[in-house]
Amino acid sequence: MVLSEPYWDHHIPLPKLGPLHSRLVTAFVALICFINSYNGDFVFDDSEAIINNKDLNPDTPLSNIWKNDFWGSNLSSNSSHKSYRPLTVLTFRINYLLAGGLHPIGFHVLNVALHCVISVLMIDVFAILIGSLVHDGRGVKLNLSPKASFLAALFFAAHPVHTESVAGIVGRADLLCALFFQLSFLVYCKAFQGGDKKFPVLWIFSSILLCAVAMLCKEQGITVLGVNAAFDILMVCNLDIYELAHRLLSRRKSADIGGLVSSGLLMRLALLFLGGSFLLYARWRIMGTGPPSFTEVDNPASFAENVILRIVNYNYYYSLNAWLLLCPWWLCFDWSMGCVPLIKSATDWRIVWPLLLWCCLMGLVYQALCSQDSNKRRTLTFGLVLLVIPFLPASNLFFRVGFVIAERVLYLSSAGYCLILAYTVGYCSCHWKKHKVHYNVGKNLADRGNQSAAVKYYREAVRLHPKYVHAMNNLGNILKERNELEEAEELLSSAVHIQPDFAAAWMNLGIVQNSLKKFDKAEQSYWNAIRFRKKYPDCYYNLGRLYADLNRSIDALNAWRNATMLKPDHSLAWNNMVILLDNTGNLAQAELIGKEALKILPKDHTIMFSLANVLGKQEKYKESEGFFLNALKINPNVASCHGNLAVLYHRWGKLDLAKRHYELSLRLDPNAPGTKENYNMLKRKLEQRQRTVG
């Protein structure tokens, strides 16, 4: 199987580090960039939130943090800011206890440590959003975009816009919120590690619970549910928004809603919606007297009487936030008090900036929806999701906020920007090296079954870059399927010569060499693949097939057993073991293996079929019948299963049932080998019995 690796990942100018090393480097970069804040003092909002906040004092009842706002005021008070962040205040109180007073160094060290942890976790978040959810046989997540996710995490770790959140102690709220935001998303993703789109409701509740924890650190945490929903729709269910809209607008057959229902998507979205609604309702009730009141000094645009002016100025604020992400040259802890004058007329030149912002956003949206490159669509879409959704609570769209611009609210949104920036670097690297997008177009065409067109694009990708090993590997796979084995062998041999540790290419080369009867070379290629990827169940499976072709039964069984140990649900390996043991007369062992396999794969009709054949040969007719019938319940249109069940009934003496299943088998496949002869034999026997009775 060829995994959908982002073609541009390989061209990013970074070394390919292992998971541990990339995390250590990311944490180190985050530490180096912000460690100089460790000996800072309490500044700006720290005075109210920490120095003057009685809830930090051990003499104050701990229960007070659940009744008061972030600044220590009672939530029922009209003067309360309504910022309900008890878990953040609790960490401040712990800092106070551990330091024995208000000593800022401990507060700063914890902030820096949290930023390091969040930056490291961003590697996992970006790996999923760029390279999708892929797991090995043991359920361990594979990172198909190691360089891209590493680069995006480095951008996040070092971005200067995080200064207020990390260096300012009150930024702890943003850090804790981001941490539990990530955990909520990763738990939601964890639910799909088996590839099943239907999963226990427990996973959703766990994700919603972590969302609630994030909200208890800062209100922005609620937005993770929107990110989870977008991930489910766009990646898990692979819903193409552009194609869906095109079908609806052209009044063609709409998307298969039944498929979405059967996949569990609507149920999951409903639970996310209900969970989010409950959290918002609880948050509203906690505020007590309604939303906080702000003055015109805090947010002048929200007090503009003209709706058009409000909209224009809000969009100007958005453009300034975007500029801070793009070019964080002038950072400021407080943008109120007239720092950003209002736009009051159409002649104000600053109106250009909102227009430019929306042009850029529309361009990104167009590319995210309409590009033929699936990796590009996925990366840009999730970059926009991460950029926009966490920013919504600060956008003034739903309620008035108490600031003009606040760099701290960009802490989570910057992850989306870093993702888009990492893609831009990778994309530009491809073009600087004259690597076209032919590989990815070829991959998309191959995924859609258009192999002839895919071959054309893969050949062009190899022509433009003769060392493009992934294009060689994919082209070799298609040529192998088209039985053009000599050229496939040549391409795959070139790929492993250029990149000797390319395990997938070694395995595919082994498959081709096996088909060419070059058994010694095929065996060596398989072992090379295993040498470079120790846990490679598919390679062990193909190695077992080679040994079976060479009548090396013990070696074949050992190879398939290794495949099932690495990937317990490897159906083909289990089934081949049962068939080989059956063919070599080891019926008792075949029965044991078959039953062991069905404990892991209880609904695998192919293993049921093979086990039923084994039991029939042992004259365990009743048990064999049960497995045949269960297999037919799962897949009733398998001619061979009806045919073999008919043979069982024939031997068992249940001739009427045998006749029925012979006829069903022949109806499904009139050319089923042996079935017609057995059926004719049965008819003669029935006629003879009828004459005897007569």
Automatic annotation (TrEMBL):
One of its GO terms (cellular component) is endoplasmic reticulum. GO terms for molecular function: dolichyl-phosphate-mannose-protein mannosyltransferase activity. Its EC number is 2.4.1.109. The chain crosses the membrane at residues 20-38, 112-134, 169-188, 200-216, 265-284, 351-369, 381-403, 409-430. GO terms for biological process: endoplasmic reticulum unfolded protein response. It is an enzyme of class 2 (transferase). It is a multi-pass membrane protein. The keyword Nucleotide-binding does not apply. PANTHER family: PROTEIN O-MANNOSYL-TRANSFERASE TMTC4, PTHR44227. This is dolichyl-phosphate-mannose--protein mannosyltransferase. It comes from Cyprinus carpio. The gene is LOC109096726.
